[in-house]
């Protein structure tokens, strides 16, 4: 049974999954009420409002990742965004070459790339974790990365270890090898500072969930302007044009910027529903949010060391995202531990035996102590000694 003295929602540790911020429910409800009011009105004013919401979504996302106007578009999710990019590349760019990815990438991306390799003519090369390691080392990626790598997908922060890749070093190697490089920024966007120009990458994909605190279906695809002109998206439609209202069948021409990755009528509801979260991001003190996360995650790491728990996440601050992950003794113990945490109004999750804890803007120091109390109850974890 929950303790009535606990602060409401202060035990939320799921910023690696969905993400919450104060007043999210009310702001989301208001945004959806506005949508219903406009879409349900018997007049001709729907599209100006809806396309304006989509444009605002893209503008706010662009500000967060330092992307110029005309370089970011919507997609349903990271996997779809990656598919849009891969299938739009020049046909001879990938054929007979390798596409490089780390074993600890988001599995959905790997599923996609595995299925595309035969049709697009590339070989998918998956860099494995070293024996006993929790993540793929940057130097192992670089060791496998020769001039026959046409494209590499870098996972900025791992969803199973919170290990942060050295994007600068990997991108520098990509340039030396003549490879395209893209970054999946999903597990840290909205918490750690990120710019598509520092270092310059060819593309980036993300969801609006997790630290972004948005809604499902609101993914983004960024493509560098120098690459956009070489891309010919296979999925195209009236919104792929400079003028979407061109109906001449013999005068179709792709838009000169990221809009060429659009196709039919855009899915706008998820973008409109995420605008409140993006506005909240634009107003908060991001440095303070990150500092609070660092204080709480360091407290948990110190406690894990004191308790002799198996820490999966790197200890150095500059080598990790915003989560701390601990290896439990088994999947069954993981389920039991989650239930014990729920009884303390602590909300986290697991991947197999790995307990994932991500303190964010709504997480209190007192809630962290409740977590540590559960972890210190004994017998739940493998020792790393």
Write structural notes for this entry.
Residues 1-6 and 379-385 have low confidence and may be disordered. The protein has 385 residues and is α/β, with parallel strands linked by helices. The protein has 2 domains: 44-282, Type I PLP-dependent aspartate aminotransferase-like (Major domain) (Aspartate Aminotransferase, domain 2, 3-Layer(aba) Sandwich); 285-375, Aspartate Aminotransferase, domain 1. The strands form 2 sheets. Strands 1-7-6-5-4-2-3 form a 7-stranded mixed β-sheet, with helices on both faces. It has a 3-stranded antiparallel β-sheet with strand order 8-10-9, with helices on one face. The longest helix is centred in the last third of the chain and has 22 residues, at 286-307. It has 12 helices and 10 strands. Strand 2 (98-102), helix 5 and strand 3 form a beta-alpha-beta unit. Helix 2 (46-65) packs across helix 9 (269-283) and helix 10 packs parallel to helix 12. It has helices at 24-39, 46-65, 78-86, 91-94, 107-120, 138-143, 167-177, 225-228, 269-283, 286-307, 331-343, 365-375; strands at residues 72-75, 98-102, 123-127, 149-155, 180-184, 203-206, 219-223, 324-327, 349-351, 354-357. GO terms for molecular function: transaminase activity. Residues 64-349 form the Aminotransferase class V domain. InterPro entries: Aminotrans_V_dom, Kynureninase, PyrdxlP-dep_Trfase, PyrdxlP-dep_Trfase_major, PyrdxlP-dep_Trfase_small. This is Aminotransferase class V-fold PLP-dependent enzyme. Keywords: Aminotransferase, Hydrolase, Pyridine nucleotide biosynthesis, Pyridoxal phosphate, Transferase.
């Amino acid at each position: 049974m929950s303790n009535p003295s606990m602060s409401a929602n202060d035990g939320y540790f799921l910023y690696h999954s969905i993400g919450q911020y104060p007043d999210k429910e009310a702001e989301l409800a208001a945004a959806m009420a506005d949508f219903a009011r406009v879409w349900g009105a018997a007049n001709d004013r729907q599209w100006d409002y809806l396309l304006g919401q989509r444009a605002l979504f893209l503008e706010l996302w662009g500000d967060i990742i330092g992307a110029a106007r005309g370089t970011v578009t919507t997609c349903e999710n990271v996997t779809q965004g990656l598919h849009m990019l891969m299938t739009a590349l020049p046909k001879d760019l990938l054929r007979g070459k390798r596409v490089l990815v780390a074993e600890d990438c988001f599995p959905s991306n790997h599923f996609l790339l595995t299925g595309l390799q035969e049709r697009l003519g590339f070989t998918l090369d998956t860099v494995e974790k070293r024996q006993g390691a929790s993540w793929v080392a940057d130097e192992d990626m670089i060791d496998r990365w020769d001039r026959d790598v046409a494209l590499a997908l870098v996972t900025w922060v791992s969803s199973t270890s919170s290990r942060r890749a050295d994007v600068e070093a990997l991108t520098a190697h990509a340039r030396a090898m003549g490879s395209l490089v893209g970054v999946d920024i999903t597990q840290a966007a909205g918490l750690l500072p990120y710019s598509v120009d520092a270092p310059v990458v060819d593309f980036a994909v993300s969801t609006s969930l997790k630290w972004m605190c948005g809604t499902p279906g609101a993914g983004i695809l960024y493509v560098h302007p120098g690459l956009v002109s070489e891309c010919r998206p296979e999925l195209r439609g009236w919104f792929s044009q400079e003028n979407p209202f061109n109906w001449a069948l013999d005068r179709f021409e792709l838009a000169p910027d990221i809009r060429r990755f659009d196709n039919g009528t855009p899915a706008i509801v998820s973008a409109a529903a995420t605008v409140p979260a993006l506005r909240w991001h634009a107003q908060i003190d991001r440095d303070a949010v990150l500092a609070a996360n660092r204080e709480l995650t360091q407290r948990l790491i110190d406690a894990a060391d004191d308790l002799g728990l198996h820490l999966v996440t790197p200890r150095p601050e500059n080598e990790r995202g915003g989560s701390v992950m601990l290896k439990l003794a088994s999947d069954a113990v993981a389920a039991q531990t989650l239930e014990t945490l729920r009884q303390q109004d602590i909300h986290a999750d697991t991947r197999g035996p790995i307990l994932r804890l991500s303190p964010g803007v709504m997480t209190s120091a007192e809630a962290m102590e409740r977590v540590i109390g559960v972890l210190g109850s004994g017998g739940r974890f493998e020792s790393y000694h």
